[in-house]
TrEMBL record:
The keyword Ubl conjugation does not apply. GO terms for molecular function: metal ion binding; poly(A)-specific ribonuclease activity; RNA binding. The gene is PARN. It is found in: Cytoplasm; Nucleus. It comes from Ailuropoda melanoleuca (Giant panda). It catalyses: Exonucleolytic cleavage of poly(A) to 5'-AMP. This is Poly(A)-specific ribonuclease PARN. Belongs to the CAF1 family.
Length: 580
């Protein structure tokens, strides 16, 4: 059922009936946007703590507007074994009730508006026909305005100009308004003297002038007339005065009171539905409903609370509880007992710490009392308000398990973080493990495995790493031997070339070679050294190791050349050893 401002009152009884009959409700909301800063991904990071998520949504999402509220009531029919549903679509918009009503400001996000438009969302039903609403504080202020008006009409209102003799005259007329009031009184006298006229319409005037008229007439004419304020088509307000007897006057006052109440109900608007849901005490479900709940509370009930205690160290806690919204208690030491002064801290003295702890408890307990209706200034140590905290020992620095329960089961889930993205999770009921594992098969953002699987996989990874290490060293050794063989072959080439050069020149080689021989030897040595370096680098051997081998081979050359003679056969000169 579609509910807008024009049919809200006529269908409200159907909504109340559905709420009363339902076994449970499902809710959903549509918004003018999601985030005024961070991306939606950053705003809903999977590693947020509940406190972090709440803070981010409160900071970046509450300036948007919830402008469509979906409610579906479910009732089970035992006769036919089926559920009967009643669905409602409420279009809501904070239209100002009067000139003193809150003029709500909100923001829109283009992507959200574009998405809703693509789904056929009718924005005219929001902005032209949306149901108004007030939160509890706004409703309280509006009721106070009506009460003040009623008091003014009875001559007991609060004005800036109060007569010293309030029993005779409730106001002292300012000099610049005396002429105006005198003219009004004169017109009323004429009305009372006339037998034909029953009503008198005064000219539109200011709010302050209307106040003066109301209070002057309530003092000067306590009986015989009825005073009311109406509004022209141009939204100008004026006063109507009617001649009535006492019975008629009372009847009109009752009518006026009923009209005021109707106006109040119209102004509260959709919030009446939220109050009915809350008062029912029935189950409410939703899909990813944190944002829906936060907007519902923020728009129709009260501003979202801040995290009022961010540090639980005793000194910081004591300082925080002296500030708003807390009220430090009045305490006095018993006769014969020393008193502590919180201005001069004596922290880590057991008696003083116990004293401060007690003060903190009183402040927090009394703060809970402020939420009662009517509020309680003092909350007893045995109050029902603090019973949920009995026998709960706070666990410091444990984010996932807030307390140890001394008289009941503890949290059946314990979490021990391994790193930023993985943790060990233990369940008190072993049969729940397989359920969790099976459920995770359909998850996209996380994975669950049993501890046995975790240990087995770690063992496999360790074995695989060990095997990889062995295989890698075998491969390195094989490449090293290949590099040696290449190096030795190149060195053979070195000796073979020298021998050929030496043999072709004189058959014997002097220890002091000729300049031509020295130049040739240097060039060949450079070529072989460069080749050896390339092979060494390709096999990932250190450069220093190659140089060591080169020097060792040169020493061998010298040792294997008796009396400076180089044999003709290079095969007898050098043989590759089996081991190096």
């Amino acid at each position: 059922m579609e509910i807008i401002r024009s049919n809200f009152k006529s269908n409200l009884h159907k909504v109340y009936q559905a709420i009363e009959e339902a076994d449970f409700f499902a809710i959903d909301g549509e918004f003018s946007g999601i985030s005024d800063g961070p991306s939606v991904t950053a705003l809903t990071n999977g590693f947020d703590t509940p406190e972090e998520r709440y803070k981010k949504l409160k900071k970046h999402s509450m300036d948007f507007l919830l402008f469509q509220f979906g409610l579906c009531a479910f009732k089970y029919d035992h006769t036919d074994s089926k559920y009967i549903t009643k669905s409602f679509n409420f279009y809501v918009f904070p239209k100002p009730f009067n000139r003193s009503s809150p003029d709500v400001k909100f923001v829109c996000q283009s992507s959200s508006i574009d998405f809703l438009a693509s789904q056929g969302f009718d924005f005219n039903k929001v902005f032209r026909n949306g149901i108004p609403y007030l939160n509890q504080e706004e409703e309280r202020q509006l009721r106070e305005q009506y009460d003040e008006k009623r008091l003014q009409s009875n001559g007991a209102g609060t004005l800036s100009y109060v007569s010293p003799n309030t029993s005779k005259c409730p106001v002292t007329i300012p000099e610049d308004q005396k002429k105006f009031i005198d003219q009004v009184v004169e017109k009323i006298e004429d009305l009372l003297q006339s037998e034909e006229n029953k009503n008198l319409d005064l000219e539109p005037c200011t709010g302050f002038q209307r106040k003066l008229i109301y209070q002057t007439l309530s003092w000067k004419y306590p009986k015989g007339i009825h005073v009311d304020t109406l509004e022209t088509e141009k939204k100008e307000r004026y006063i109507v005065i009617s001649k009535v007897d006492e019975e008629e006057r009372k009847r009109r006052e009752q009518q006026k009171l009923a009209k005021e109440q109707e106006e109040l109900n119209d102004a509260v608007g959709f919030s009446r539905v939220i109050h009915a849901i809350a008062n029912s005490g029935k189950l409410i479900i939703g899909h990813n409903m944190l944002l829906d709940v936060m907007h519902t509370v923020h728009q129709f009930y009260c501003p979202l609370p801040a995290d009022i205690i961010n540090n639980t160290s005793l000194a910081e806690l004591e300082k925080r509880l002296k500030e708003t919204p807390f009220n430090p208690p009045k305490v006095e030491s018993a006769e014969g007992f020393p008193s502590y002064d919180t201005a001069t801290e004596q922290l880590h003295e057991a008696g003083y710490d116990a004293y401060i702890t007690g003060l903190c408890f009183i402040s927090m307990a009394n703060y809970l009392g402020s939420f009662l209706s009517p509020p309680k200034i003092h909350v007893s140590a045995r109050s029902k308000l603090i019973e949920p905290f009995f026998n709960k020992l706070f666990l410091m620095r444990v984010m996932d398990i807030p307390y140890l329960n001394l008289e009941g089961p503890d949290c059946n889930i314990q979490i021990s973080w391994i790193d930023d993205t993985s943790a060990f999770v233990s369940l008190s009921q072993p049969e729940q493990v397989q359920i969790a594992v099976n459920t995770s098969k359909y998850a996209e953002s996380y994975r669950i495995q049993t501890y046995a699987d975790y240990v087995g996989k770690k063992h496999e990874e360790k074995q695989s790493k060990r095997k990889w290490t062995e295989d890698t060293w075998q491969e390195v050794e094989r490449k090293r031997l290949n590099t040696q063989c290449i190096s030795y072959a190149l060195q053979n080439h070195y000796y073979h070339t020298n021998s050929l050069t030496a043999t072709s020149t004189a058959g014997k080689r002097n220890l002091s070679p000729s300049p031509e021989e020295a130049d040739l030897e240097a060039r060949i040595s450079r070529e072989i050294s460069d080749t050896e370096l390339e092979q060494t680098e390709s096999c990932a051997e250190p450069l220093s190791e190659g140089r060591k081998k080169s020097k060792k081979l040169k020493r061998m050359k010298k040792d294997l050349s008796p009396a400076g003679v180089i044999p003709d056969s290079p095969a007898k000169l050098f043989e590759v050893p089996d081991t190096w």
